[in-house]
Write a structure and sequence with these properties.
Blueprint: H1 16-19, H2 22-41, E1 67-68, H3 83-87, E2 93-99, E3 107-115, H4 124-128, E4 134-135, E5 152-153, H5 155-159
Antiparallel strand pairs: 1-4, 2-3, 3-5
Length: 161
Amino acid sequence: MTIGIKKVARPREMSFPESLYLLEILKGLGVTMGHMLSNIVHQEGIKTIEYPEVRREMPPRFRGRHRLMKRQDGTPRCVACFCCATACPAKCITIVAGETPDPAVEKYPVRFDIDMLRCVFCGMCVEACPCDAIRMDTGWFTPPDDTREKLIFTIDTLLEK
């Protein structure tokens, strides 16, 4: 049994000017400058909007931030049935149920939290809610924040207008 000799392909040795990559850097700068100059000449094709002065128009099916609906007396419409938390694929909804003194309502949410960092804005919670207590029709983005705790929306935050 003979062992075959394997050939290894090695790149050729570069000369000193080639090893500095100056020609390639100049080619890249040329492409960049070409794009910049074409954007200066043809500004109507630029997709940038001047944000606080010009607001982006949201499509009609945009699902914004969550909100909880209120009853006539100001209490949450939610009956703590856990349908929204069960339907949520991201498992970002936390509900703690409590007994209510009102005989017409069996339960109410003592705690209703949505972790906006985990939410994927799919709208499954809205579809699953049998009493139309949660909606995503605000048209607002989730505002950026500097801590995780501020992006866990509590029942008080969700009931605000």
